[in-house]
Structures are given as C-alpha cells and as structure tokens.
Design a protein that fits this description.
This protein is of the alpha+beta class and 213 residues long. It has two domains: 3-52 and 176-199, no CATH class; 59-165, Chitinase A, domain 3 (Roll), CATH 3.10.50. Helix content is 51%, strand content 13%. The protein contains six helices and four strands, in the order ααβααβαββα. The protein has helices at 3-35, 40-49, 78-99, 104-111, 132-139, 172-199; strands at 59-67, 122-127, 150-151, 156-165. It has a four-stranded antiparallel beta sheet with strand order 2-1-4-3, sandwiched between helices. Helix 2 packs across helix 6. The protein starts with a helix and ends in a 14-residue tail after the last helix.
Length: 213
C-alpha cells in the first residue's frame, strides 16, 4: 500500500470510529435520561409554565328534540321534499311555542324521536370536537337560546344550549403524566445538543503562516 493510500484510508476509519462512539454515547445517555425521575418541584414548574396549554377543550351542555315521521325519507323526489317540509314546519312551530315560554324538556319527553327523550332531551356535556353538526350549531348559540330546525338523516333537530365551559384548567394531577413527558423530552434534547457539540463540532482551523518567519 502506498503512502498516499494510507492518507486516504485513515481519516475514513477515524470518522467511522467517531460516528460509532457518538451513536453509542447517544444510546447510553438516552437510556440514562429515560431512567431519570423528575422532582416534584420540576414537574410543578412545567405545569405552571405550560398553564395556558393545560385546559380542557370547549364543553357545552345541551338538550335536543328530534322530530321525524314514519315515512321519513332523504330521497330527492318531490314526494320526499314534501314529507321533509312537513316535518320542518312542525319543528318551526314547536320552536315558536318554546320561545313563547312552553317547556323544552316536556316537549322532548312527549315528541322527540331520540333516545334522549326520557331524559327530557338531555345530551349532557359535549366536548369539542364531537360531530360537525353539534359543534357548529352549539357554537353559534348563546346560553338559553334554541337553534332553528337542523336537517339530519333522521329528521329535524332542535338544540338548546344550557351552559358553556371555556378554558377550564386541567388539574395538576391529571396533567402530571404530560409534564413528565415534557421533562424527559427536554432531557433528551439537552443530551443531543451536548453530544453534537462534543462529537460533531468542527475542528478549529490552523492559523495561517503564509510569509511568516
């Protein structure tokens, strides 16, 4: 092997050895980081730092009345349109009666075709995102207001918004696991940065001596 060949091969071997050492060191440090356990103080500090992100999605409490007909259909014929219009008109009339003071829950018990009829149409708390139909309709309502009739595959729906919860904080104990994951992610990130600085940082260039004694 010539002297020139030795010069070519040796740097490659050194680079491969350096890369292998880097990967081994990274694996070892990652395992140590994952074994680590954050202190209670560190976890609570992350919870306070990320407080704006530890909130429940919007929740809305609502109830419903579903009006339909035995021969309800979604077909596009004239007959189908007439049947749907009749149910829609019933829903409009019912809404007017409720707006004038008659009870939503009582109408739900007597007239609704939904499984919630026995509970007065109570849907409970709906956490967004649920279904586009509910999310869009409820987001446009003020508390106590009733939606116009909403066309569905089963009939026409009336919704009443009862209450809203926005930006409710998630309790610390419920957010603890997420805080621990954030802590471990930061530990790994720090290790990677330290390893890169140690193994991959460019070597300083020698000072030029052109023309110097």
């Amino acid at each position: 092997m010539s002297e020139l060949d030795v010069v070519k091969v040796t740097p490659i071997k050194e680079e491969l050895a350096a890369l292998e050492n880097f990967l081994l060191a990274e694996r070892f440090m990652k395992s140590k980081a994952l074994e680590g356990v954050p202190s209670e103080k560190e976890i609570r500090a992350i919870y306070r730092e990320r407080a704006k992100t530890f909130v429940y999605p919007p929740c809305r409490k609502a109830r419903e009345i579903l009006l339909t007909a035995k021969d309800w259909t979604r077909e596009t014929s004239r007959e189908g349109w007439i049947k749907r219009r009749a149910v829609r008109d019933r829903a409009r009339g019912l809404r007017e009666r409720i707006l004038k003071g008659e009870g939503f829950a009582e109408f739900a018990r007597r007239l609704s075709a939904s499984s919630t009829a026995s509970q007065g149409g109570d849907l409970g708390w709906i956490q967004a995102p649920s279904s586009p139909l509910f999310d869009t309709a409820l987001a446009s309502l003020e508390v106590g207001k009733i939606s116009p009739p909403i066309a569905t595959d089963k009939g026409y729906l009336l919704l009443q918004l009862q209450d809203v919860r926005l930006n409710q904080p998630i309790p610390f104990e419920e957010a603890r696991k997420k805080c621990e994951e954030i802590w471990k992610y930061r530990q790994l990130k720090q290790i990677k940065e330290e390893l890169r600085a140690q193994f991959i940082a460019p070597s300083p260039l020698p000072s030029p001596h052109w023309g110097e004694e």
